Amino acid sequence: MAIYFDNAATTKPSAAAVAAFTEALSLYGNPSSPHALGAEARRRLESARATLASLVGCKTEEFYFTASGTESDNSAIYGLWELRKRYGKRVILTDSEHPAVKEPCRRLEAQGAEVVYLPTRGGVIDTEFLKEAIKTPTALVCVMLANNETGAVYDIKAVRDIINAANSRALLHCDAVQGFMKAEGYKQALRQADSAAFSAHKLHGLRGVGGLMLKSNLHPPAFVVGGGQEKGMRSGTENLAAAVAFAAAATEYGKGAIEKVKEIRAYTEEKLRALDNIGFNVPPKHLEGILNISLRGIKSETALNCLSAQGIYISASSACSSKQAENTVLAAYGLEKADRECALRIGISPLNTKEEADALVAALEGARQRYGRI
Amino acid sequence: MNNYVLLLKYGEVVMKGLNRSYFDSLIVRRVKQLLKFVEGEFTLEYAQSTLCIVGSEGADMDDAADKMKRVFGIASVCRAWRCEKTVDAIRATVAEHIDELIGDAKTFKCEGKRSDKSFPLSSPALSGEIGGTILQLKPYLKVDVVNPDICIKLEVRDKYAAVHGGGEKGAGGMPNGSAGHGMLLLSGGIDSPVAGYLMAKRGLALDALYFDSPPYTSQAAEDKVNALAEAVARYCGKLYMHTISLTEIQEVLMRDCDERLFTILLRRFMMRLAEKQALDVGAAALITGESLGQVASQTLHALTVTNAIPQIPVFRPCIAMDKDEIVQISRKIGTFDISILPYEDCCTVFVPRHPNTRPTMEQILEQEAKLDIEGLVERAFATRRHKKIVG
Fold it and tell me: Which residues in chain A have Cβ-Cβ distances shorter than 8 Å to B340?
């Protein structure tokens, strides 16, 4: 039986999501069709949108379905840049953003953007740096709600306050793929953002569907054009079944998942703290579901392979060999090279149990005993 | 009649004497192997050091041409139109396909080549005749005999005439398997697939040997090496991929031996296992991607020590190449993008901080005296796995 502790990568679809998906498959009408079957599909799509918008804390018309969190990030960044590029050429993003944000920002350099990386040492935004950086006219600020490697929850409200205090017209995009439904006070944080990106499969929904929140006063050019679905923001026939499953999964997650995750996290952490020679890469404000450790003495990839052979799945979040790209997130966090080389990410979901946590900790220590030695 | 054909011009094999037919048969076998994967039916006609591939109606000649460019022993691949051996027929063929032949060229020349000396026009006369026709059809064109945008070739052969716009470079080299059978030491890096390709080009049939080291190396690393073997097999045809685990050997070396000599000692074990595996499958040479001085285990001193193990020859076709030259070939054969995927291979697991770049045989033998070499080799050899890779 597999023991799955890689829930920051993706999650097992929940029973609620699968049931909603299966049921919605029978609604095969195109939501754009005017006939009864199409109208029913449209009604269900809008109901899923309303559910998700209420969970995000935005207006229903501010929530758009996309095909992934990455697509949402791309759409928002390219779109918001178009709205503000005449105001300022600067784009500020944290040095620990996901590639779905980093890469589009980097691409904007070809259009004259000046990309500035905001330090997040120790998992905390360097507000002094931001106060200085924002003095130059800035088109866009991108700060993720929660980091995918360390679980650090960034203070979006503080970022908004700094933008406002500088009287900047910069727009604020928030990648909420990891943090949605999981970060404490996420609704208040998202209220500060002009746009935000979401993904279903991090919440026990299905892959292939994401969400984009866009403030209703903003009308950026669309990224995917065609039949004009999603009010022209994202053309393409809607993935109704996956959208309905997204809403079901998120609703289900809201029913006590956090408490369950918190309990397993506390238990796992306690067990791990009993081990010698282990580092906890835990920021002051963090997601309960992401526990990043440095298991000193065994390279991440060796530990991962060893656990994988026993049917226990975690993530090695570090650079192991000279050929591998450096893990910039852990470097930005301020972790020394030796600790980065043995860093492991444990992604916890409400489906995990204490028995699984026991097996995980035993397997980690077993791997280190047998194969450890850096 | 479908007169659009591929002409495969033979390369170095035409220099062969009495055993020529053996080389020819290997080329034909490889051509047939590859054509099996192309849509359509094909017939082969061989004459005058040229293999003519005739496709059935609707056959995918572009795909066929692309695949033929991977056949070793072929110097060039021409997409040609065949016709009867008369001036009128050649003229009519040129006229019919003038747009495809000329493309967006602004200048051209015609180059007649008459191997049938009984043809009424000499080669220059034929060039002039057809060149005049082309100028009538496309009056905006200019003749440039020194540096034309396109050179229209008019070949008058024994059985037919052919018209084409020049050949594309073939894979060159010698036919698959004509030089025997070699065992390629394939890692996940850039150099070893290139070494395999280069030796296959000289006619070696290949088997590949990969050393893994679970759990220090992952399944993803093995999948990557499989993908590399598949890319090499696109050129050399099918090959067998053998995998041997070095975990125990690496752990013992790390525990019992001088860390600075770790890599060299390991390379010597790899050579022992590779030779054993080569002899087991009837391969008579080893192939490595070593390049002189590239890393600590590839200095002259280090190579001397590792080379002392095998009795069979070790081919190192990259030995005199710079990294960028190797990279250039790896891009050409499509292995570069696979090679740079970031997975551990067994060479990078236990890398000594300060490797000895000038090991001596005495030092090595002193270290090896502490080891049960035979037992380690036997146990590692027992971990062998095999997989057939079809290219």
Answer: 323
| Boundaries of every domain in chain A | 15-253, 256-371
CA dist B310 to B271, B290, B304, B364, Å?
Answer: 6, 15, 11, 16
- Label residue B334 exposed, middle or buried (CB < 10 Å: 0-12, 13-18, 19+): middle
**B216/A302 CB distance under 8 A:** yes
Chain B residue numbers touching A309 (CB-CB < 8 A): 214-215
User: What sign does the dihedral B120-B123-B127-B128 (CA atoms) show?
Assistant: negative
Of the two residues B343 and A338, the one the predictor is more confident about is A338
Q: Which CATH class is domain A15-253?
A: alpha beta
- A374–B contact, CB cutoff 8 A: no
Percentage of chain B modeled with pLDDT above 90: 86
Q: How is residue B215 written in tokens?
A: 């759990």
pLDDT at position B1: 47
* pLDDT over threshold 70, residue A317: no
B180-389 belongs to CATH 3.40.50.620? yes
Q: Which residues of A are catalytic?
A: 320
CATH 3.30.450.40, applies to B4-169:
no
From the list B254, B344, B351, the residue facing A301 with the nearest CB is B344
Q: Is A298 an interface residue toward B (CB < 8 Å)?
A: no
CB spacing of A367 vs B215 below 8 angstroms: yes
Q: DSSP E strands: which ranges in A49-202?
A: 63-66, 90-94, 114-118, 138-142, 171-175, 195-199
Are residues A371 and B219, on separate chains, in Cβ contact within 8 Å? Answer: no
Chain A nearest-CA distance from B386, in A, is 20
pLDDT the model gives residue B347: 64
Query: Per the CATH hierarchy, to which homologous superfamily does domain A256-371 belong?
Result: Aspartate Aminotransferase, domain 1 (3.90.1150.10)
How much is the pTM? Answer: 0.84
**pLDDT level of residue A323 (50, 70, 90 thresholds):** very low
> Mean pLDDT of all residues in chain A?
95
